[in-house]
Amino acid sequence: MAQPKDIETAPPEPPSQEPAGRVEFDSRGNSVWRWARDVLDSTSILLKRLENRLELPAARGRDVPARQTTLRQAIAWSYDLLGDEERRLHSRLSVFMGGCTFEAAERVAGAEGEPDLLEGIASLVDRSLLRESEGVGGEARFSMLETIREFAREQLAQSGEEDKFVRRHALEFACFAEEAGAGLRGDAQVVWFERLEAEHDNLRAAMDSSLAARDDETALRLGGALGWFWYAHGHALEGCMRLTELLAATKGAPEELRARPMYALGVLLDQRGEPERAAELVERSLAVFRQQDDRERIGTALNSLGSIKRVLGDFDAAGSLLEESLAIRRELGDEVRMASSLSNLGIVAFEQGDLDDAEARFVEALELDRAHGNEWGAGAALDNLAAVAIERGDTERARELNSEVLVSAQRVGDQELIAFGLEKAAILAATEEQPARAGRLAGAADAVREAAGVDRNDFDRGWLDRHLSRVAGEKFETHRAAGKTIEPEEALREALEG
C-alpha cells in the first residue's frame, strides 16, 4: 500500500551546539555503495575514451583549414571572435549542467558593474555557442553542447574565476532546492516536480562541487532538501547513493546539519526495503530534533518511524508513534502533514484487518490533501482506498479509484505509485479470470519497481500474491515475464482501459 512519508524540506537553521554523539557511515560498507562502485568500474573504459572528446577530428581533407582540424580548434576559432564580455559570460555559464533559466544565469554568471546579461546571451545564441529551448511552463532555457561546455570550463579555469562561480552555482541550487521543497507542499506541486527534474543535473553538480570544496553546510542543505524529490520521483537508488556518500564525507559537521539528510536517507532506505537500517537513522535524527525542540520535524520523524515500525511488524509501537505524530500536527495546525499521519494510521488498521477504521482514516487524509492541493498525497490515499475496495470485493469501486491513482501518479511522476496502480489493475484482471492481462500488468509493475529501485515490503508482497493466486500458472508467469519488457506508457494505457 502507498505509504506517505514526510521528507524534510525546510531550510536548516544555523547549529547552536554540537552534540557529543555522531552516526558513523562507512561509504564502502553497504550494498548501495558497492553497487555504485561496480557500475563505475564497468564503465571506466568508456569514460576514459570520453575524456578526450575535444581532441577528436572535426573534419578531414586536404582543403580543410588547420583551425578546423579538431573540435577544440573549431570551438576556439568561434570563441576568438567573441568580445571580452561575451567570453567571460560564456565561460561562466559553463558551471551549469544541463542548462539554466535566464534568472539563474543572471544570478550566477552576472557580476556587479557589468552589462545586463540579456544582450550577451542573445549574442551567444546567435553564434550557436549557446542553445535556447523551451523549459518548464514555456520558460526559456539555455544550454551548451557538452563539447562546447568543456571548452568554456577550461577557459573559466584559466581565468582564475572558477572557484568563485562554482561556489555561486552551488549556493544558487541549494536555495533552489529549499524553495522547491516548500513548493512541493502546495498546489503547484506538479510544476515543482518538473522544475526539479529539469534542474537535476545542476543539483547533482552543486552537491558534488560542495563536497569537493569541503563545503559541508551547502552539501548537507542540498541533501536534506532533495530527499522528498528523490523519494517521490523514482530516484530512490540515486538518493541512497548520494546521501550515503554525503554523510560519509561530512562526519565532522555538526549533527544539527546532518540530521535532515540522515532522516532522508532513512526514509529512502525503507522505500528500498531496508527497514532495520532505516529505523536506526530515523531514530537518530529524531533524537536531534527532540534536542532542538523542533515540533514540526519531531512530528515528521515520528510519522516515518511509525511507518517503518509497522513494516517491521511492531504494530503497537507503530500506532503509538503515529498517534503522537498526528497529535503534534493537530497542535501545529499542519493539515498537509496531518494527512500523511492519518494515511499511515489507516495502513496499520488495514494490515490488522480493521477495514472500517482504515477507510475512515484514508477518507479524512484524502479530504485534507485535496483541500491543500497535495496531489501526491491524494494519490496515495486513493491507492489505499482502492486496496480497501478490493479487500471488500467491490471491484467496480476499486477500478474507479485505481484509474484516479494512475492518472495522478502520471502527473506527479511517482514511479512507486505507478507500480501500485499497475499491481491493483493486475489484481482486478485476476478477479475476472484474465491471467494474460493480469500477468502483463504485474510484470510491468515489476519493471517499474526495478527501474526506480523500489521494493515491496513483506505485507504488500504477500497481499499481491494472495490476490493474484487465482490466476497462478504457466500462462500467468509467461505473460508476467513478457510484461517486464513493455514500455510503462503502454502498460498504463492498458491498465486505464480496463
Record keyword descriptors for this entry.
single chain; 498 residues; mainly alpha; Arc Repressor Mutant, subunit A; 25 helices; 71% helix; globular
Task: Provide an overview of this structure.
It is a single chain. The protein has 498 residues and is an all-alpha fold. Among the domains are: 56-160, Winged helix-like DNA-binding domain superfamily/Winged helix DNA-binding domain (Arc Repressor Mutant, subunit A, Orthogonal Bundle); 400-498, no CATH class. The protein has helices spanning 31-42, 44-51, 71-80, 84-92, 102-109, 117-126, 146-159, 162-183, 189-198, 200-212, 216-232, 236-249, 255-271, 275-292, 295-311, 315-332, 335-351, 355-371, 375-392, 395-412, 415-431, 435-452, 458-468, 474-483, 488-497; strands at residues 100-101, 131-134, 140-143. A three-stranded antiparallel beta sheet has the order 1-3-2. Helix 8 (162-183) runs antiparallel to helix 9 (189-198). The radius of gyration is 25 Å and the shape is globular.
Radius of gyration: 25 Å
Treating each run of at least 4 consecutive H or I residues as one helix, how many helices?
25
**Reading side by side through the largest sheet, how are the strands ordered?**
1-3-2
Helix residue percentage: over 70%
CATH C-level category of the domain at 56-160: Mainly Alpha
Compact description:
This protein has 498 residues and is mostly helical.
SSE blueprint:
Layout: H1 31-42, H2 44-51, H3 71-80, H4 84-92, E1 100-101, H5 102-109, H6 117-126, E2 131-134, E3 140-143, H7 146-159, H8 162-183, H9 189-198, H10 200-212, H11 216-232, H12 236-249, H13 255-271, H14 275-292, H15 295-311, H16 315-332, H17 335-351, H18 355-371, H19 375-392, H20 395-412, H21 415-431, H22 435-452, H23 458-468, H24 474-483, H25 488-497
Antiparallel strand pairs: 1-3, 2-3
Helix pairs in contact: 4-6, 4-7, 5-8, 8-9, 8-10, 8-11, 10-11, 11-12, 11-13, 12-13, 13-14, 14-15, 15-16, 15-17, 16-17, 17-18, 17-19, 18-19, 19-20, 19-21, 20-21, 21-22, 21-25, 22-24, 22-25
